[in-house]
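Data availability excerpt. The first of two example chains:
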Amino acid sequence: MDADLDSLRRFFASAPFMVELGVRPMAVEPGRVRTELTLERKHLQHTGVAHAGVLASLADHSMGAAAQTLAPEGHWILTAEFKTNLLRGSRGDKLVCEAWVLKPGRQIMFTEAEVHAISGEGDEQQRQLVVKASGTMAVTQAK
């Protein structure tokens, strides 16, 4: 499993926007990925909650990474369509995204993700669902 996590980390490191955002891959298994983002001032909008673009980017790239774990050798996953439901303002110390493949396929894969805002640590930790997302991922030949 460590080799898979190393591979996922290389995948995220190859996406400059994810690196700049600060998204970290934390766990992987076939068709499933967990990522985290420590919230900083640069991630917030004018009301002090995480910007919708940050939340959507976290969910989208995590769903794509989950699909990539099932892609055949020599193929890349590209987002064809995604929907992000913002359930409430995101305040906290970090965001945790769980993404998974609902239905794999040779040409498209259907994915979902949930993003939770996490505040505190240990027994005092609070976890609140802030985003529910779904995506259609295209399986494309690598060039």
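And the second chain:
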Amino acid sequence: MSIYRVLFAFATLLLPFGAAAELSKKFGNYEIHYNALATEDLAPDVAKAYGISRSRNAGMLTVAVLKRNADGTLQPVAAEVKATAVTLTARLTTLELKEVRESGAIYYIGEYRLSRPETLRFTLQIQPQGEPRSFNIQFQRSFD
């Protein structure tokens, strides 16, 4: 499967996500794509397909891990993904992430509660399968 089909499958889950653009970060041969958005931004059919309630007061984190092969192509890989979200008032939420595999894509989804307006600081710890080290990502998302 081409990387474009994998990224399309991942992006389809997120559409429409408006201003909450998908982010990515590279760690050697790995490329990690992630995003946090309000579930009200999900298309109704996408939310239904994944059993996610569309709500102004609920959010969703998505993470996908890709590995660059020797020929330069990217391939989805399984990983152990841990995530937390902290509000500016120090309320900590540990997200339970579920792995989704479909059409050759592998990604992780976790839901969280929102109290708007709110800014969340996310911390991700990702250890790709077979990789001895883990990768850490921190990012912030504001919800109005």
